[in-house]
Design goal:
Length: about 450
């Protein structure tokens, strides 16, 4: 009887153990998570396996070169089974970023180590243009620089110029020690060391289409182009022959392809066609050859994202814009110009928005010998933000030329010059607001 009882108890214990084992759930090992990334700006795409793990991944994106002024990007996420779509909303162009994906503690999923993937944001596809008017270094180099140094002319304005990605001027003289003076009232030429002034100012683009570029003949023009090329300064509006002159300048600035063309009026009129570039003949380009100018513009429009046309035009020593300037400026816009930059009057003139594109009728003087008229001492620096669709923002910084050393005035003198520029804008109904020293134009 005792033996039977033991057997029954043993059977019951075995049964209980079996029932207990059957009730225990065995937890499987966590499934490994794998991530693959791709990037087509501004979208990053993460493919996640197993698909259900996409819901739980924690994402971070940080700059790989953190420093002052470098903030993490901002983004939005959209998650579906097996996929995370990340759309960048704010980023810094050409910055290297590191994306990391981490799986927090989870019973079903695990990562042996965080997923890390590096990528570089593209350029901003926008750049800052700084443009000034007439730069004539001849008498300046003969007088001021020997008494001071090559840094004298731009000492009070250099920081403004250096802030530009593309820094433009109309170079109103050849740079050479060769050639004979032309038979005209005013002839200009700067010594070869004058090129250092342009380099110190950060200039990387000039127009050579003006009525003084051949004051000392074709040899001096060739020397000028050689000096510019040595310094890495692009030019438009002249060439060793017509084919080179009509090429203009095609640059890539912050990812934007920028085409630049330049043309001049003949002053005096007998310079046309004598100074015109031709087959095997160094020279400049005249807008009087209108069909050729428009053909140049069509070719450049097909190559560039943004086209800038420099025009040496208008009457001298006046704020007034003449009928020819208006007609030509609008014609250029009609044929594809995104921005027209005018010079020659030696005085600032108004800015018109035509079909949404700005025509700057005259940038005035910038570096020149002191004139006896106040109108020629008053000017401005144009600051423009330019993207793939053209000009996005424009600002005017008032400057006085001083003793061949441009500077931003202060106090009552600044307010007076802001008023002068404001009246020029009013002539074309161009709105603006004053912010600090600058006039910020209302964009159409």
């Amino acid at each position: 009887m005792g033996k039977k009882l033991l057997l029954v108890v043993a059977a019951l214990l075995v049964a209980a153990f079996v029932l207990w084992i059957a009730g225990v759930k065995v937890t499987p090992d966590p499934e490994p998570v794998q991530v693959a990334a791709s990037y087509r700006h501004p979208v990053l795409r993460l493919e996640v396996t197993p698909a259900a793990a996409a819901e739980n991944l924690e994402i971070q994106i940080r700059p790989q070169r953190p420093g002052a002024g470098v903030a993490p990007p901002r983004w939005q996420e959209q998650r579906t089974a097996g996929c995370i779509v990340i759309t960048l909303e704010e980023w810094q162009g050409e910055q290297d970023y590191l994306l990391t994906a981490v799986m927090p503690a989870h019973p079903a999923f695990a990562m042996a180590e965080p997923f890390a993937w590096a990528f570089q944001a593209p350029p901003d596809y926008a750049f800052d243009l700084v443009a000034v008017g007439d730069v004539m270094l001849g008498r300046l180099m003969a007088a001021m620089v020997p008494d001071y140094d090559v840094g004298y002319p731009l000492a009070r304005i250099r920081e403004v110029l250096e802030a530009g990605d593309l820094v433009f001027a109309n170079l109103e003289c050849p740079i050479s020690d060769r050639g004979e003076p032309a038979a005209k009232k005013y002839v200009f030429r700067a010594r070869p060391e004058a090129a250092a002034v342009l380099a110190l100012g950060g200039f990387n683009l000039v127009s050579l289409a003006n009525n003084h570029v051949l004051d000392y003949g074709p040899l001096a023009l060739l020397d000028t182009m050689a000096a510019l090329e040595e310094l890495g300064i692009a030019w438009a509006g002249a060439g060793a022959d017509e084919a080179q002159a009509r090429q203009g300048a095609l640059l890539t600035v912050k990812g934007v392809r920028v085409g630049v063309l330049a043309y001049t009026l003949p002053a005096p009129g007998r310079l046309y066609p004598a100074w015109a570039a031709g087959e095997g003949k160094a020279g400049t380009l005249y807008y009087r050859d209108q069909d050729k100018m428009l053909a140049d513009l069509a070719r450049m429009r097909a190559q560039a994202d943004v086209v800038i046309v420099s025009m040496h035009w208008g009457y001298e020593y006046t704020h007034g814009v003449n009928a020819e300037q208006k007609k030509l400026g609008r014609l250029l816009v009609d044929n594809g110009a995104d921005l027209v930059l005018g010079h020659h009057p030696h005085a600032p003139q108004g800015i018109e928005f035509y079909r949404g594109k700005p025509i700057v009728y005259s940038l005035g003087n910038f570096l020149f010998y002191p004139f006896s008229m106040d109108i020629t001492d008053e000017s401005f620096i144009l600051k423009a933000r330019i993207g793939l669709e053209g000009v996005e923002e424009m600002r005017l910084l008032p400057v006085l030329l001083g003793d061949s050393q441009p500077f931003v005035p202060e106090g009552a003198e600044l307010e007076r010059l802001q008023g002068v520029l404001g009246k020029l804008l009013d002539q074309f109904g161009t709105g603006y607001a004053v912010e600090g020293a600058e006039l910020v134009l209302s964009m159409p």
